[in-house]
Amino acid sequence: MRLNEEQKKILDGKEGGILQDAIISLIKYGNAMGAEEFIPISSAHTAFSTMDVVALAFPPRGKELTKEDINEFSEAISDCQVRVKTTTNPGIIDRERWQEMGANEVIHNSVMRAMEISKRCGIMMTCSCTPYIGDNIPLMGEHCAWAESSAHLYINSFLGARTNRDSYETSLYSALLGITPNFGMHLDENRKGTDLVDVQCELNNTTDWGALGYFTGEKVGLGIPVFTNLNKPTMEEAVQLTANCNSPGGIPMLLIPGVSPEAPTGEVAFGKNILRKTYIFDEAAKRKIYEDFSYEPEGKVDMVFLGCPHKTLYEIKKIAQILKGKHVANDTSLWIMTSYSIRALAKQLGYAQIIEDSGGKLFADGCLLLYYVNAPAKRPKMDHVVTDSLKQGFGVRRSFHSNIFVTDTERCIEIAIGGA
Ligand code: F3S
User: Looking at ligand 1, which residue's alpha carbon is closest to its atom 2?
Assistant: First the structure.
C-alpha cells in the first residue's frame, strides 16, 4: 500500500506503539484485500466491551494475556485519542442493572474499567447495535469503518454512507488513525446490484421483513440484492430487513429502488452489472423460514426476548401500550433491549415504567447472544426462548441449543403474559 508522509511516520513508531501496531494491522488488512492506499473516514463503530477483549486487538497475540499485559496496554491506549466520531456496539451487560442480569462483580468491574479508558480515548461508549438511528448517523457518501453485522449494511443501503464490514479490531485501528484501506464498498463499482429478489407475498410486521432478510441472505450469500415489488419500509422494517440478511449471509449492501439513495430506479441499481440470478420470495418461502424456527411452546416459556437489533423508541412505546395493565407470567422473563440513550427517553416518557410494572425488564446494552457468549455469569433459564428476531433466534439456538420460536412482537408479548 502507498503511504503518505504522516502514515510513514506512524509506521516508523514516531507516534507511539499503539498507533504503530494499528497501522501495521491496517496495512496487512489492506494488502490482503487488494487496497492500494488509505482513505480518510469520518466515523467508526467498534467494540470496547472489556479491556481484556480490547487488548486482544493488539500484539502480543496468540498468547494468554496476563493481568500485567492488560494493565500496561490500558495505560498505553489511554494516551491515544480517536480521530473520528466513534461509537461502540453492545457490550456484555447493562452497566446500571448488571446484577439483575445475573452478572458478577468481576464482569462489572471489567466493563467499568473499559468505559473509563474509552472515555479517555474519546470513544463514545454508546453500546448499541443501532447507532445509525441516533448516536452516529453518517450521511450520503461519507466513508466509515464500521463493525456490526447489521449496522454496516444499514448505512450502506439506506444512508448511502460507505463502509466495509469491518471487524472490531480493524474498526478500532481505523478510529485511532482516522483512515481505512480503500477497497470494497468504498468504491463506486462495487456498489451495484448483482441479484434480484422478487417479493410476491405480504409482509405483515417487522418480523416478516426479517424473514425476507433471512431468505435473501441465505440465497444471495455474497452479493448485492435488488428488490422488486417491495413497498417502502418504515425505519423499523428496514432495520429488521438489514439485520437478518447476515445471519445466514454476507451481504454488504442491499438496494430498494426508490428508497435506497443510490438506487432511484432498478436500472440504476444494477448499473452495468449483468443480473446473476432472480429469487422469488412468496408465501411458501416465508412459511419455510418460520417452520425452521417453529418450536411451538407447549409448556412454560423461560425467556421472551425483544430487541435484536436494539428496539427503537417507537417500538418501545408500542410494547408499553400492549403491556399496560397486564402482567408477565411468574416463571417467564421478558427482556427488552435498547440503547442507553433510548432508554433514558423511554424513562422520561413513562414507557419504561409501564414495562417494569408489568414485570418486563427494559435493559440497555447487551443482548442474549453477546451476554452469554462473553460473560461467565449466572444465566436465567433459557431452554425455551421466544423472540421476534430471526437473527437472535438463529444465534441463540446455535450457541445454546435452546428451543426457539420466532413470531411477531405482539404474539411474543402475549406469550410472555400467558407464560406458555
Ligand atoms: Fe444487536 Fe445482539 Fe442482535 S448485538 S443485532 S441485539 S445479536
Answer: 367
